[in-house]
Amino acid sequence: MGRILVVDDEELAREAIKLRLERDGHQVDTAASEAEAIEKIRTANPPYDVVITDMVMESENSGLEVLKAALLRDVLTEVIILTAYGSVANAVECLKRGAYDYLEKNIPGVDVYDLLALKVERAMEHRAESLGLLKRLQAYQQPAAVQEESRD
Amino acid sequence: MATQQRTEERIAHESHLYRLWSAISEPETLLRAILEESLEAVGATRGTISLVDYRTGELVTKFVAGLGWSEEKQELRFKITDEPGNSISSYVAYTGLPYICPDVTNDPHYYPIFPDTRSELAVPLIGRGGRVLGVLNVESERTNAFGENEARVLSSLASIAAFALSLAAHQTREKALIELGKELAATPDIDTLLERVTEIAAKLLDADDCSLFLLDKSINRLVLRASRGLLRSLVGKATYRLGEGLTGWVALHNKPARLNGVVGDPRWKGLYLELKPEEISAFMAVPVRGRREVVGVLRVLRKKANPSAPHYLFSEEDEELLFTLASQLGAALEREELQRRLFTMQHIATIGELAARTAHMIGNKVFAMKGALKELSLQLSNLSLPESAQRLLTSVERALYEVETLLQDLRDFVKATQLNLQPVCLSEMVEELVREYSQEFPHISFELQLDEQPIWVKGDPEKLKNAISELIENSVHFLKEGDKISVRLTKSTWVGQKHARLIIRDTGPGVPDKLKEQIFQPFFTTRAKGMGLGLAIVKGIVEAHGGTIEERGREGEGAMFIITLPAIEPAQGGES
User: Fold this and answer.
1) Cβ neighbours around A57 below 10 Å, total
2) How far is residue B223's CA from residue B288's CA, in Å, rounded to a whole number?
3) For the CA atoms of B562, B565, B569, B574, what is the dihedral angle to 10 degrees?
């Protein structure tokens, strides 16, 4: 299904998300820091469909840096921000800067992993729609170039 | 000649004035002069001024005049009593009345000091409140030397002496009070300060012991905080309920108590005694008053010199003095409280930050655990697990959710104390809230009382609004149709700082006495749902603003919440 990068400095969290998403058939990479994530995003080929990143890692704004790198690599990559307590404000800032959605890690009584899986499905659909739209636009303007790029 | 005479008279008069002035500032000089003057005025050969030592119940010779006084004779002390043979002066000190002795040979009270003494005249020195301070005594080598006339002359001289003594005592006290005021303002440590107050009170009031009890609101009891004598070992341990014993009575009624001894007083319980009840000559206690209420009791005791000695009573003047001390102490305690609050305010922010970071870290771990647990139970579900193992998994999951709930409450609490401060017109805010709530809850009648001048505070408008709303909603929750909520906002001054005072009062069931201490604690609620952080958050918000909140209603008569917040001058252009 999708190519997904999970970024979290908590190993157990990375692994749990990876397992959950692999059950849905996704191909999941992980990164343990902002720096590692940015490196993987840059070198990924093709780019990741979805990047899931923790908001606060090395710094309060690690999530924002990961978002920037992802959008720089592929403006249609969907980024989902994970927040623990106190970092919702930063997550909202990420939404303004182009993140697809954010998810609070600790919602009492809610299975956030299922919720995350759901958001990933939606993000995949969103990306597919956007790609489709882009393809149609490009086919209309430069049919040859589009063919080439999408095979890249 | 006439001019020179006038000049001499003038000089004489001026030097007389000078003598008067120096006499007032040096009471000893004045008393000596009065004694000399007395001898001359009534034609006596010798005289004494002796003063009452209330500690020992004795009359002590202080000044002598005339010939033949040996050191031994000057050091005589007499028991103050009406028993015969203890000296005429001692009898006068006992009765407080002048005494003419025409012939010493037949006088039962006479005590021979000089063989040539034939007659005596003694008058009391009476201070404020009718207390005998001492005795002025003159004698003659003639019998029948003194009559009513001499007694009158001597009495008027004695009254000048008594006045000089009272004045000197008064000046000493005034000085001591000023010193104490300076000292209290400069004492950094509250326990040292309390110690000093008891020391000074005992010294100034010539008391044998002094104890200070302060109200501990968490247990609603007066706790001994400082004492000089026997009770010292009970500091922190001895307590009185409000209304219990004389000390509790003083605190409960906010009134002083001044008694001759204590035996027989119905209020006396004798729980914690500096002295045996029968040894107590006089007892006096005054309330220590804070801004709004009694915060403690300061009490002093005088010991009886001996079982038959007259009571050494506390005078009205003594009571005034103790009140002054207590009010200085009250002000010092208030300052201490204000400083403590500023300190709290600064530290709430730091603690909040720490708590937020901790919650964040725990939240991350819990998130990971939830994920791992989910995958684990999924993998285990392929095996056929016994039902008990399944139950264990479920309860771990539930516990994790509970941890998250706690974290969420903690976050709410921390958030409440992180303020975005700006000038806020509290009057406007309160008015708006009351308007909104009276529309939302038409079955309850709202009453609003505002000062004409709008009241401003420095605060976080959002948080303050939340706090006031929570209080109103909390009230509404307990009210029935037709009940009333009255909201009142006024300005008050406390330790020189202007404060806004918001009172929210309802006609509901009120807060039960046994719950009063708990309602502001986190996780306490009498309501079915919610974690009970409501009032704890309100308290957090108010304290982060450097304010206070308390519940002062009576059980069965409705709840009354009082919030105070430091007020500021109205913001410019803030009238609109």
Assistant:
1) 23
2) 13
3) -80
- Which residues have CB under 8 Å from A66's CB, separation 6+? A7, A34, A37, A38, A41, A51, A53, A79
The CA angle B550-B553-B558, to the nearest 5 degrees, is 130
Q: Could you identify the residue written with the tokens 């305010």?
A: B345
Count of CA atoms in the C-beta half-sphere (13 A) of B113: 28
Contact residues on chain B for A13, CB-CB shorter than 8 A: 364, 367-368, 371
Q: What is the pLDDT of residues B371-402, one digit of tens each?
A: 888 888 888 888 877 888 888 888 888 888 88
B454 touches B432 (CB < 8 A): no
What is residue B22's predicted lDDT score, i.e. its pLDDT?
63
Among candidates B546, B466, B541, which has minimal Cα distance to B498?
A: B546
Residues 6+ positions from B491 with CB-CB distance below 8 Å? B451, B453, B455, B498, B499, B500, B501, B567
d(CA A111, CA A114): 6
Distance CA B325, CA B317 (A): 12
**B287 preceded by cis ω (within 30°)?**
no
Residue B32 contacts residue B62 (beta carbons within 8 Å): no
Answer yes or no: is the ipTM higher than 0.85. no
Please state, in angstroms and rounded to a whole number, the distance separating the CA atoms of residues B179 and B163.
Answer: 24
B289 CB-near residues (< 8 Å, 6+ apart): B254, B295, B326, B327, B330
Inter-chain touch A109–B401, beta carbons under 8 Å: yes
Q: Is B9 within 8 Å of B2 (Cβ atoms)?
A: no
* Sheet containing A101-104, strands listed edge to edge, beginning at the edge strand earlier in sequence: A27-31, A3-7, A50-54, A78-83, A101-104
Per-chain mean pLDDT for chain B: 84
Provide the sign of the torsion angle of the four alpha carbons B480, B483, B488, B494, taken in this order.
Answer: negative
CB contact under 8 A, B370 and A17: no
C-alpha angle B477/B479/B485, rounded to 5°?
100
Residues in chain B: 576
Give A145→chain B minimum CA distance, Å: 43
Check CB contact of A87 with chain B, cutoff 8 Å.
yes
Whole-angstrom distance, CA of residue B567 vs CA of residue B547: 10
Q: pLDDT, tens digit, for every residue of B118-158?
A: 999 999 999 877 788 999 999 999 999 999 999 999 999 99
